[in-house]
Amino acid sequence: MAETVYLLEGVVKAYNGREICHIEHLEVRSGEIFGLMGPSGAGKTTLLRLLNFLEPPTSGTIHFLNFSSNGHAAPPLELRRRVTMVFQEPMLFSATVEANVAYGLRLRQRSIKPGQLREALERVGLTSLAKAQAATLSGGEKQRVALARALLIQPSVLLLDEPTANLDPYNVALIEESIATINREMGATIVLVTHNVFQAQRLSQRVGLLLDGRVVEVGDVQQVFTQPKDPRTAAFIRGDMIY
Amino acid sequence: MEILGESLSQAWGLILHFDPYLGQVVGLSLAVSGLALVVSTALGVPLGSFLGLYHFPGRRLSIALIYTGMGFPPIVVGLFVYLLLSRAGPLTFLSWLFTPQAMVIAQVLIASPLVTGFTMAAVKGVSPRLHDQLVSLGATRWQATWAILKEARLGVLVAIVAGLGGIISEVGAVMLVGGNIEGSTRVLTTAILLETRRGAFDVALALGLILLALTFLINVALLRLQGRTLD
Lengths: 243, 231
Prior knowledge:
heterodimer, A: about 240 residues, alpha/beta, 6-stranded mixed sheet, 4-stranded antiparallel sheet, B: about 230 residues, mainly alpha, MetI-like fold, 11 helices, about 75% helix
């Protein structure tokens, strides 16, 4: 049985009294790619922000490794630095690609070993653009820079928020391949948020469906896609519930 | 037009021969405004960043006070500093009235709200998503603030330039608290005023040209410090 990385119990996130997320129980296991599916506005990004401790839950508890977040308490920096997120729209600095990729390591005052930066760029197919200014890159290239930046810090947990939304098939393939490699070779636990059921099926070992801020169903990818327990899951997989 | 041409030619002569009187006035102007700008930057940039990035009780009031300070008439600032340092004021024991120190205090009070307000606007102009990204990458509060300041560097530069613009050409406050004493508190702006009143248009014009050149050169230097060219 794999170790539990995240355990959410009765976690509620509300803004101005409006509940955006209400997770009774959710577990993310060590070393897995957990695909979190759901339509736009289902609360997927809010859930990722909670997992990244970017904001505290309104109520409930988030257990992360040996830390339990109750109320506004955030984990200590060392623990927080074991998780990072790649956002749907990556934010890069007005600097070169390699400066952007190296940023996470610089924050940790760790020196970059020879070849480490090149290897990270190679993984996402950006070696030739190392010296390019980030502002000149296309959307897909920016997303790949964000991915390289995240993997260079070798996080225990990588949170991906719609990492291939609005990208062309070439960039989608490159990013999906990188995600699989990061999980396989680095052993990173990955939570992949996507509204693309096929992507969730291709990459994940376990998947969950989020609707209106609540978890409808969680299970092994094979089981959920072939024998969904909830009719809403079946409808979502068929493509009847994209809204 | 004839007077202007004649004055210009005489002014040019004074500059080329490096008149000692001009040198003394220019030196004091640079010292007073330079020190005031350094202090205002040291106060205004961190304060502006804090106001732009973090929410706390009383933030709105603080911002309102900064905006008020940005539009404060320099002569009123001068009067305020004068009263503080005068014989009846609480800071009379310093004996700083009619000294360069008093002029620096007045200029700091004029420039600091400008540097703070423009820095705040620059920092607020950076996408809040960058802050989230930085925290997500493991930045501490200080690291995130520094990275955002670097991202907003052109806006911060504008803030510093605005602070400089507010004091280098200011005349009312420095006249009031400095007294325009030759060899002691006479700076470019107060000297221009005096020389114009005396009818020494050549000297006034020379001082004016130097003031313009100085402002231009300082701005170019600041831009180059930021690693940017003028284009």
